Amino acid sequence: MRPHDHMCWVFTGAREFAALAVPFLSEGAALGQRLMYVAENPDPEDMRPLAASGAAHALQITSIAEVYGADGIVDPVAQRSTYAAALADAVAHGYAGLRVAAENTSLVSDDERLKAWIRWEIIADRFIAENPITGLCAFDKEKVDTSRLRHLATPHPLSSASSPVPQFRLVSEAGVLCIEGQVDSFAVTQLWLALENLPARTQVLVDLATARLMSRGVLAGLGQLSDVGVHVTIRGEPVAIGELRRSLPRPIDRLVLQEV
């Protein structure tokens, strides 16, 4: 993984997370990044291989409570400030950026925590896309059910092979919110919710090379986004775009159908 990469990783048991984190963080050390290892009850012994490789000076070992708060309900705006400060401090000390391996299972243990966490992931993905950060968000499949793991993968551009494949993804790229996968009415609803947590004037891109509109109602839903001022671009091959254009009952100012 490299700066701006953001991955959802599903693992089994705390020992497996530690074993995963060591090579992930070692890779970051080789790139000149400051390293953060975040776990429920972090054991410094788990990171001993990093000390042996000479990377210990770049490593910060910290608990979930210290980074995300004792109650486990993440405040997305405050959390962005926390990581922005950590990144600024890393750069001030000569590091090329920040690399975070975080075991976040306890932060999605109920619906209230999950809702707050998804909001944070939307903000975090935008922050990572715009800054030299590499993020690995890890969840224990022994404690989180499959449907919740699939939902957690949605705001991540990358997933481990062990992660359930989400129906769709909502990811940031160059200031644009991209939706990929099977886009149905539920996906459009989640698109609305994601935009509520992103800066005003964030644009939406639907690239038909990676997204499939599941019904004409989806096109209407995207049109409603445009009607409230969101600039939406649907990009695809001429034949597909031509079919969509014929499906529109009326032109919509901020809905662009772009042939490529």
Task: Describe the protein's architecture and organization.
With 260 residues, this protein is of the alpha/beta class. Helix content is 41%, strand content 27%. It has a six-stranded parallel sheet, with helices on both faces. α4 packs parallel to α5. The relative contact order is 0.12. The mean pLDDT is 94.
- What does the largest sheet look like? 6 strands, parallel
Number of strands: 11
Q: Label the structural class.
A: alpha/beta
Average pLDDT level:
94
Strand neighbour order, sheet with most strands: 3-2-4-5-1-6
Number of distinct helices: 9
Order of helices and strands: EHEHEHHEHEHEEEHEHEHE
Query: What integer value in Å does the Rg equal?
Result: 20 Å
Shape assignment? elongated
Hey, roughly how much beta strand do the residues contain? 25-35%
Span of the ends, CA to CA: 30 Å
Show unreliable segments. Answer: none
Task: Give descriptors for this structure.
alpha/beta, about 260 residues, 9 helices, 11 strands, five-stranded mixed sheet
Compact summary:
By secondary structure, the chain is α/β, with parallel strands linked by helices. The protein contains nine helices and eleven strands. The strands form two sheets. A six-stranded parallel sheet has the order 3-2-4-5-1-6, with helices on both faces.
